[in-house]
């Protein structure tokens, strides 16, 4: 049986295709990775976080983007985080951001390994990134990677009464806000 090689796209081809594509694709070193739709629960959790940051952060200093704005990790790697907080000055490209301070991914069975592995390694190389939050939709659980003195530190939050401190953003994110209107099966 004859195998055909997977097409490798240039960044320019990718960016042009994304303008008219009905589904989003991440771009990983020439390969297009289609983004599946998300659950209502994942959407609610990401929406809760977006609403919180929209209210908590000064609009003249920070911008928040949810789902559909690309993050350029490097010149050949584009991702679509569930939520990203960037400084207002990060506005040279109308479709992508490059200087995240906070990235949030809501975990799902199909993305959990990539979010914890590949994306964690890729995102942690971004000099502007201070916080990477992985939020479970199965149980109250937030894994927070934060940059401290040039090193990454991992903290777990599992109690709805806990509060996640984000000093670089000058705010604190309560777990009960993240999980507002979320009912767990256990």
Give a description of the structure:
The structure is a single chain. This protein has one domain: tt1808, chain A. 23% of the residues lie in helices and 32% in strands. The chain has helices spanning 11-20, 40-56, 112-116, 118-124, 175-178, and strands spanning 25-28, 31-34, 62-66, 70-74, 77-79, 83-87, 96-97, 102-106, 131-135, 142-148, 151-157, 163-166, 171-174. The mean pLDDT is 91. The strands form three sheets. A six-stranded mixed β-sheet has the order 3-6-8-9-10-11, sandwiched between helices. The termini are far apart. The protein is an alpha+beta fold and 186 residues long.
Shape: globular
Name the helicity range: 10-25%
Q: According to CATH, what is the class?
A: Alpha Beta
Instruction: Enumerate the spans where pLDDT stays under 50 for 5 or more consecutive residues.
Output: none
Summarize the structure.
This protein is α+β, with helices and mostly antiparallel strands. Helices cover 23% and strands 32% of the residues. The longest helix is centred in the N-terminal third of the chain and has 17 residues, at 40-56.
List the SSEs and their pairings:
Elements: H1 11-20, E1 25-28, E2 31-34, H2 40-56, E3 62-66, E4 70-74, E5 77-79, E6 83-87, E7 96-97, E8 102-106, H3 112-116, H4 118-124, E9 131-135, E10 142-148, E11 151-157, E12 163-166, E13 171-174, H5 175-178
Parallel strand pairs: 4-7, 8-9
Antiparallel strand pairs: 1-2, 1-5, 3-6, 4-5, 6-8, 9-10, 10-11, 12-13
Characteristic terms for this protein:
5 helices, tt1808, chain A, alpha+beta, five-stranded mixed beta sheet
